[in-house]
Design a protein that fits this description.
Length: about 60
């Protein structure tokens, strides 16, 4: 699973029927949100240039 974020200015060019992700995830990408997709679907969108890898925002625990 890869977490990707949709590029709002480019993803509108792609039809939801032409990609390997479900419609709910595709709609969230169209809004500019980030979703977890299977590797194959994520790589397809990344290669099309309509999405980018989302930055992971894991916080580190402070040691005392």
């Amino acid at each position: 699973m890869i977490k990707i974020e949709g590029l709002k200015d480019k993803i509108y060019r792609v039809s939801s029927n032409s990609v390997l992700c479900d419609i709910a995830s595709f709609d969230k990408l169209k809004e500019g949100g980030s979703v977890d997709l299977p590797n194959e679907a994520a790589e397809e969108l990344l290669n099309m240039g309509v999405a980018k890898k989302a930055k992971s925002t894991k916080s580190k625990k402070e040691s005392k």
